[in-house]
Amino acid sequence: MGLVDKAKDKAQELAGKAKQGVGDATDDETLKAEGHKDETAGKLKSTGEDLKEKAAEKFNDLKDRD
């Protein structure tokens, strides 16, 4: 995963946290839910990409054994 993708995922996560905060402050349940969705999506994308990177590393390690 590139640095740009990691930054985008983190930005989405942080924007979601901000939306949740605004939703809490304004008592807006819809905004809080959108914020939670955005935060979770950012975390899931980041975790998925990390898993792909680790799997590729393991694959390359196994391939290099030959």
Fold blueprint:
Elements: H1 3-26, H2 29-64
Helix pairs in contact: 1-2
Quick take:
With 66 residues, the chain is mainly α.
Structure notes:
With 66 residues, this protein is an all-alpha fold. The chain has one domain. Helix content is 91%, strand content 0%. The chain is built from two helices and no strands. The protein has helices spanning 3-26, 29-64. Helix 1 (3-26) packs antiparallel against helix 2 (29-64). It is rod-shaped and about 60 Å long. The model has no long low-confidence stretch (mean pLDDT 93).
Cα radius of gyration in angstroms? 17 Å
Number of helices: 2
Could you tell me how far the N terminus lies from the C terminus, measured between alpha carbons in angstroms? 26 Å
Mean pLDDT: 93
| General shape | rod-shaped
Task: Write down the secondary-structure element order.
Answer: HH
Largest beta sheet, briefly? Answer: none
Helix proportion range: over 70%
Query: What count of domains describes the coordinates?
Result: 1
What characteristics describe this protein?
66 residues, mainly alpha
